Amino acid sequence: MANTPDDVSCAGHRQRLRDKFVKNQLADYERIELMLTYAIARRDVRQPARALMKKFGSVYQILTAPLEELASVKGVGMVSAICIKQMHDLMTIGFKEYMIKQPFYKDYGGFENYCRLVVGGKAKEEVHVLYLGANDCLIEEEVHSKGTSNESAIYVQNILQKALKTEAHSIIMIHNHPTAMTSFSDDDIKTTLELHELLKHVGIVFRDHYVVSGSIIYSARNMHIIVDESK
Question: Is residue 2 over pLDDT 70?
Answer without folding.
Answer: no
